[in-house]
Amino acid sequence: NLTIVSFAKGRTGYEEAEAEFVRRLSGHGSVTVEVVKNWKDKDGLPTRLLGNTYPVGLYIDGRSYTSTALAQHVGNLLQRGNSHLVFAIGGADGMPAGVDDQVRERWSLSSLTFSHGLARLLLLEALYRSLDILHGGNYHK
Predict the structure, then answer these.
(1) pLDDT tens digits, residue range 115-134?
(2) Are 6 and 116 in contact (CB under 8 A)?
(3) Which of 8, 19, 38, 141 has its CA 20 to 30 A from that of 97?
(4) For the residues of 13-24, what is the DSSP string, one character each?
């Protein structure tokens, strides 16, 4: 299971592309994209996403991966019994401080700053590519 939680203030222009990657990813398990409209700095992830999950935060200074290294890491996480990965994407002011203490890993998509909508799309694509690599698909080739 994959859940992506991000901050948003309206349409991003990437909704159609996001829907396509959610559709593709759902062939590997359930995928949920949640948008928090008013994520305050002290707020953390919703309690229901903290039980038996493995929360990952996206940060500019987080660990970056190549596509194949990310696929291997995701595969390792899943093999260790982390069947529900939760990804948090902060807003324009960064990640809410409440999330900092909840995440188990800090990943980076790039050292560049992206809008929350574009970051969400990039994450969906990277996760799809990772699962495709793990399952021997042709998307990465």
Answers:
(1) 888 999 999 999 999 999 99
(2) yes
(3) 19
(4) S-HHHHHHHHHH
